[in-house]
Amino acid sequence: MAEAAVPKRDLVALVKARFEKVTTEGNAPKGDPCVWCDRERIIDLARFLKSDLEFEILMDLAGVDYPDRSPRFEVIYNFYSVTHADRLFVKVLADDDEAGVPSLTVVYRSADWHEREVFDMFGVRFSGHPNLRRILMYDGFQGHPLRKDYDARERQPLIGPKD
To answer: Which of 83, 95, 121, 129 could make a disulfide contact with 54, Cβ separation 3.0–4.6 Å?
Structure first.
């Protein structure tokens, strides 16, 4: 006998019940829910997702550049619950200022390299990150190659072998 399908949780309602200022954007392309969060509340939201809603994994985090908008960047977090087979996307607006976005390394260790990649490619800073430095480009590289205003034809300084 086939088992009845277990209804999915209303993740947006669960998040909004705890964080009133969280707004919704609709669903991600495959129907997964998506919410917007203020950067000041992202750590609280991540802790809630991990402990209360059992989102055990931060699958990915990405940056998107909108150079004609302020704040210029979106940081998009992709959380996954193995226990419930749920996915939730969380978006945070950011600029490349010193304040940046609080690092989620205190909640999810996997945020370490993801945040370093967004820093390296877009210049978004993650405050409180234990080791925020380039991860893909070399230390002398100038600029951030995934920014839409980055000139790929510009020459970079040559870095020779260390003595």
So the answer is: 83
**DSSP reduced 3-state for 80:** strand
Categorise residue 54: left if φ over 0, alpha if ψ from -120 to 50, beta otherwise: left
pTM: 0.89
**Residues 140-163: tens digit of each pLDDT:** 899 999 999 999 888 888 765 555
Distance between CA atoms of residues 35 and 89, nearest Å:
6
Q: Output DSSP code: residue 10.
A: -
Domains of the chain with bracketed CATH: 11-98 (3.30.460.80)
SS3 percent helix, strand, coil of the chain, rounded to 5, is 20, 25, 55
